[in-house]
Design a protein that fits this description.
Elements lengths: L2 H5 L1 E5 L6 H4 L3 H11 L4 E6 L3 H13 L4 E6 L5 H15 L4 E4 L15 H27 L15 E6 L12 H21 L4 E8 L5 H4 L4 H11 L8 H12 L10 E4 L7
Parallel strand pairs: 1-2, 1-4, 2-3, 4-5, 5-6, 6-7
Helix pairs in contact: 3-4, 3-10, 5-6, 6-7
The structure holds nicotinamide-adenine-dinucleotide.
């Protein structure tokens, strides 16, 4: 258990992966459960589709029976929806300590010459503009609050943001240029804002997952052959478990990372070594 995680309010976007029952958990649900396992008892769960949020809520309550869990429908690509999401979080809890901006969408393999412009716009609106909008309202809220000081913890924290980037933030991935460019942008915003708001006691980092065994990967139209190739091509010869990505997010959010800001933590089984 991490005392700072136990004392704070965690927001997780994309925490209600809709294909849960059929295909296993998305990364967002596992992030929420990772916070619960580390003592967190105040949760604001957001997703554009809400039924899965109730599943995540009940799983949190199995770990933390006393937890307050608020579920909220939000579209991270929409300005007023993100503003309302943060306003509601502050109304419910009075503060926001750990913002995990995880919502994202994939796309099928397509040469750039064949990608419809609408696909580029949709992927960028959710994956990149979504992070920009979340930063805009989360940082504004964090700047208004007193740092969270917890006995026994080295440094008080005014707030931490962890974005879910990707190994595609660091390398070219053939046939998904709009996704790759959106995730490169996530890394850039993470570093820009980490530099800007470090002096205010707000840390901003990202995790860069490799091939993670989630509904997004299995349902992205890449097919079973693609999954097998991802396993075979990884130095560790397997997909990453979503709970392993969650461990990275909780680490970057918590007291052990009190001097870490502006980094991308690969959680990729070594995929970026190639
Ligand atoms: P997922 O599809 O299981 O979960 C994504 C969640 O985001 C879903 O619950 C979905 O409803 C939600 N969402 C989509 N659009 C939204 C919007 N506009 N507003 C709010 N919520 C929205 O996928 P996942 O694999 O758990 O992906 C989570 C994150 O991890 C994404 O940002 C993805 O790009 C990233 N990622 C995934 C992998 C992988 O292999 N699965 C690898 C690298 C990075």
């Amino acid at each position: 258990m991490d005392p700072i995680i136990a004392a704070g309010v965690a927001l997780v976007t994309g925490s209600g992966s809709v294909l849960l029952a059929k295909d296993g958990a998305g990364i967002g649900q596992e992030i929420a459960l990772g916070f619960a396992r580390n003592g967190c008892r105040k949760f604001f769960l957001a997703d554009i589709v809400t039924p899965g949020l109730e599943t995540t809520k009940s799983l949190i309550e199995q770990i933390q029976p006393e937890a307050k869990v608020v579920t909220h429908k939000a579209d991270v690509s929409n300005d007023s929806s993100v503003q309302e999401m943060i306003d509601t979080c502050i109304k419910e809890f009075g503060r926001l300590d750990f913002a995990c901006n995880n919502a994202g969408i994939a796309m099928g393999n397509t040469l750039s010459v064949d990608v419809p412009v609408a696909t580029f716009d949709r992927v960028h609106n959710v994956n990149l503009k979504g992070i920009f909008l979340c930063h805009k309202y989360e940082i504004a809220a964090m700047l208004k609050q007193e740092p969270l000081a917890v006995p026994g913890v080295r440094k008080a924290s005014r707030g931490s943001i962890v974005n879910t980037a990707s190994m595609a933030s660091h390398s070219a991935v053939s046939l998904i240029a709009p996704y790759t460019s959106s995730k490169h942008g996530v890394l850039t915003i993470t570093r820009e804002d980490a530099r800007q708001f470090g002096k205010d006691g707000i840390r901003i980092n990202c995790v860069s997952p490799g091939y993670v065994d989630t509904p997004l990967l299995r349902g992205s139209g890449h097919g079973g052959e693609y999954v097998r190739a991802a396993e075979e091509g990884s130095p560790m010869k397997r997909l990453v478990d979503p709970a392993e990505v969650a461990d990275g997010v909780v680490f970057l959010s918590g007291s052990a990372a009190s001097a870490i800001t502006g980094v991308s933590l690969p959680v990729d089984g070594g995929a970026l070594l190639y």
